[in-house]
């Protein structure tokens, strides 16, 4: 008999903060997506269509809050128990925090230090391949291409230079796509269709939240 991973989250134990525009249900889905694909695998999460309408910047910032720390470098590529990491961070003393997340006030890690920290975190917080296979994600198809970072998200999210460049390229691609639609008179029709699909998705998420109470 197969089993499916289900996380029963207790707010008294895992008291992370919600980023603007997120519901508890969406954060639960993000938690599962991060365990399934790994931290830093933003494009895979977007392409899985489990969180339609969310940009990479929004996912990045909510991931910071789930882990309880702003710097994600030491977890990049890892599939970990986020709740375990968060509780570990909450026990740390003499650190600076913002929105319950630890802010790095020291020097940046060297490449060797980062590799060592990643190995330690995989050992201490990693989840088994067997459990990863069991993770099931919902899929809500929305025909949206807005998975790039806004200027505000770049300024607030503590992103690396590579991440900024990648998302600026995505922004350029999206602008060119929309300009083409404007020239062909297709933009208004496409926008109306996208709004309707997002409305249906929000209704599904609201109904799901209501039924879980």
Detailed description of the structure:
This is Myb-like domain-containing protein. It comes from Paramecium octaurelia. There is one protein chain. With 213 residues, the protein is mainly alpha-helical. It is built from nine helices and two strands. A two-stranded antiparallel sheet has the order 1-2. α1 packs across α3. The two termini are 28 Å apart. The N terminus is likely disordered.
Q: Would you list the SSEs in sequence order as H and E?
A: HHHHEEHHHHH
> What is the overall silhouette?
globular
Strand order of the largest sheet: 1-2
Helix-residue proportion = 40-55%
Report the sheet-strand fraction: under 5%
- How many extended strands? 2
Mean pLDDT: 78
Report the structural category.
mainly alpha
- Supply Rg: 18 Å
Number of helices: 9
Q: Tell me about the biggest sheet?
A: 2 strands, antiparallel
Protein name: Myb-like domain-containing protein
Organism: Paramecium octaurelia
Topology record:
Elements lengths: L23 H14 L4 H6 L8 H12 L14 H9 L5 E3 L2 E3 L7 H15 L3 H6 L16 H6 L4 H23 L3 H26 L1
Antiparallel strand pairs: 1-2
Helix pairs in contact: 1-3
